[in-house]
Amino acid sequence: AWANVPQAPPDKILGLNILYQLDTNPNKIDLGVGAYRTDKGEPWIMPSIRMAEEILAKTETDKEYAPILGSPSFIDEVQRLLFNHDTSGYQLLADGRVVTAQGISGTGSLRVLSEFLAKFNPVCNAILPNPTWANHIAILQESGIVTSKYRYYDYKTNGLDIDGLIEDLQSADPRTVALFHLCCHNPTGVDATLEQWDQIIRVISERKLIPLLDMAYQGFESGDPIRDLRVLSKFNDAVTRGMIPTYLLAQSFAKNMGLYGERVGTLSIVCADSKEAEKVRSQLARVVRPMYSSPPTHGSKLATIVLGNTKVYRQWLKDVKKMVTRLNTMRTLLYDKLTIEYSSPVQWDHLLSQKGMFAYTGLNAEQVTKLRERKSVYMTSDGRISLAGITSGNVDYLAKSIDEVTRD
Ligand code: PMP
Q1: Ligand 1 lined by 133 (C-beta under 6 Å)
Q2: What are the Aminotransferase class I/classII large domain coordinates in residue numbering (predicted)?
Q3: How far is CA 37 from the centre of its chain?
Q4: DSSP H helical segments within 226-353, as ranges?
Q5: What domains, with CATH codes, occur in the chain?
């Protein structure tokens, strides 16, 4: 019956993982993984999550369905986390202007927002940073939204092309959806500075663009999830000052709570007033109901405990700090080995200024292939490496291997 179904191209990251699994070299290194690993190269369940699991095991009374848009106690906690730390965010919440719903982690939340935009935004175009997380493009396109790119990464300076970015936003039509990574841009690790964000928000306001904000790595920039809300606060200010009427936000607890497979995240839409919010909420429920009916509950119950129980919350802040400290140690160690120990002729300073779980090395596709074939070092063809895959045990081999292929 399905003889005419064509073979779909393999997923790049999953394909890489298969090759890695088959590799018998004992020195092999997997730098494709987008999940945290300890210094022993192992997955990590955070102590705060262990604590939440214990509390949940004792207090859970049912495994019933959550409401279509997620459990109210979870939504309350997430709103407190995201909006209660700045006066503008607080004001938006107090005025009932923020609709928040649990989605299926960051991806599912983006997908629901994308369906909402396709239905209700009169302009079906979106502009995305070049490059961006590949799934952004697929998610929007699946909803029928036409995507194009705005300039973002400058391959000459390994930094942000702020002039190109501003110019491209300026030439977008009103109501075009403009997607931004709020912190720790994936794959480049390059973010706008706070001053540059002011500039960006001004253009959003002038050109009447619809900001779609993605925050998958809250906490990974500074090590503190609250401090990493600074850019979101700027958007809250812009809304309360009447500069922009709305923004849409997708966030995920996959990385900062290590709840990857539990699929915990939310979407929020900022509205003009509580009446508009009510209508938007009703339409979000209509989007979700025929897609998956209601979100999963185990992970969101854990996140509710983490955010709501003072002792667990304090532990969570420590856990995030610990992860980020290790990632940054590996970042510096790799840099030091390359530049000092191996005296690499290549300029690697960008490794130090990039933020988050990844480093965008600047290695080209040919060098990436050589690293894989000759050294059993696995990374995506754009030269992005996950710092989580680096340990004190393999960083020397990694630096030596990178140095060798860049001298070829
Ligand atoms: N946005 C970006 C930029 C990401 O890197 C990711 C995770 N790879 C996500 C969203 C969503 O991930 P998840 O669905 O696991 O929350």
Answers
A1: yes
A2: 27-402
A3: 17
A4: 230-240, 274-292, 298-308, 310-336, 349-353
A5: 12-45+315-407 (3.90.1150.10), 65-308 (3.40.640.10)
Contact between 259 and 299 (Cβ < 8 Å): yes
User: Which amino acid does the sequence have at 362?
Assistant: G
Q: Kindly state the DSSP code that residue 228 receives in the 8-state scheme.
A: G
Does residue 132 line the site of ligand 1, with CB under 6 A?
no
Residue identifier of the C-alpha nearest atom 4 of ligand 1: 216
0.95 exceeded by pTM: yes
pLDDT digits (tens, 9 = 90+) for 163-178: 999 999 999 999 999 9
Of 92, 87, 297, 319, nearest to 225 by C-alpha is 319
Which pair of structure tokens corresponds to residue 32?
């494709």
Token pair 């939340």 is found at: 109
Q: What is the predicted ipTM?
A: 0.98
At 133, which amino acid appears? Answer: W
Nearest to 256 by CA among 266, 246, 270: 266
Q: Given a cut of 90, is residue 325 above it in pLDDT?
A: yes
| Atom of ligand 1 minimally distant from the CA of 105 | 16
Report the catalytic residues.
133, 214, 255
**Start-to-end Cα distance in the chain:** 51
Reading the block at residue 382, the tokens are 């754009």
